[in-house]
Amino acid sequence: MSAEELKLLDEMFENCEYQDSLDMIQKLSDQESCEVKWRLARTVFFLSKQSSVGDEKEALVRQAFEHAEAALEKDGDNFGANKWYGAILSEKSSLDGVTERIKQLENVQKHFQRAVSLNGDSDPGIWHMLGQFNYKLSEVNWITRKLINSVAPNPPTASYAEALECFAKAESIKPNFYALNLLYLGKSHLALKQSAEAKPWLERAAAVEVRCEDDRICREEATELLKKL
User: Fold this and answer.
1) Angle, nearest 10°, between helix axes 124-138 and 179-191?
2) Which residues cross the membrane (predicted)?
3) Does the structure show a pLDDT above 90 at 6?
4) To 10 degrees, what angle do helices 179-191 and 195-206 make?
């Protein structure tokens, strides 16, 4: 495994070439290193997003989690391992039911924050993940909040303002790096009753090129939100 091979895998991922990325990883001579393991977890996770078959989707998420877990076991201080372990744990715990998802909230947040401390100055993706964590935690209703407080040992708190700060930070590091960041910048402004500030972000989100499932979701949701402004 060389730095050039890792760079190529990252370029494939950024270009939404998930199957090609998986094929390349499976041909590498060193598939057990932490750097390869978390990239494998990332690739399988995004392949799960492309699937429309429920059982296949779930199987891929669980497979991705196993790879992320293995990466973290190899190096608990690795940025990519913490970042993708947190992201995939969030998705995997959702498959395991509401109670398990709530129990894992603190763990997800811990790994995101650890990743931020390791490489937050140069990676926009981890700020987007932390932003989504804050946004989704902010939008829960009072019944779910009550359940969180009763189930989670140390329930995390968040606000739409904190979510907006994270999405803005991500965009400042690398503008236009991810379609969903544009969407969530718009949604965060809307949640804060800032329609004028939301509109340009939603317009950009509604105009993204569709290369993968996240792009499609971004365009559709942004288009619907714009109709309501």
Assistant:
1) 40
2) none
3) yes
4) 160
Length of the chain: 229
CA distances (Å), 129 to each of 116, 121, 219, in order? 10, 14, 19
Please say if the pLDDT value at position 12 is more than 90: yes
Measured CA distances, 200 to 162, 190, 207, 225 (Å)? 20, 12, 11, 12
Find all residues with CB under 8 Å of 121, minimum gap 6, and list them: 173
How far apart, in Å, are the Cα atoms of 225 and each of 134, 139, 141, 164, 220? 20, 16, 21, 17, 9
pLDDT of residue 145 exceeding 90, the answer is no
Residue with tokens 């499932």: 213
Burial class (CB in 10 A: 0-12, 13-18, 19+), 224: exposed
Q: Which amino acid is at 158?
A: A
Indicate whether 195 pLDDT > 90.
Answer: yes
- The type of residue at 106 is E
Collapsing DSSP states into helix, strand and coil, what is residue 228? coil
The DSSP secondary structure of 117-159, one letter per residue, reads HHHTTT-HHHHHHHHHHHHHHHT--HHHHHHHHHH-SS-----
Q: Which amino acid is at 181?
A: N
Domain ranges of the chain: 3-120
Cβ–Cβ contacts within 10 Å for residue 29, how many?
7
pTM over 0.90: yes
What distance in Å separates the CA atoms of residue 136 and residue 145, rounded to the nearest whole number? 12
Measure the CA–CA gap between 64 and 151, rounded to whole angstroms: 26
> Mean pLDDT throughout 24-40?
93
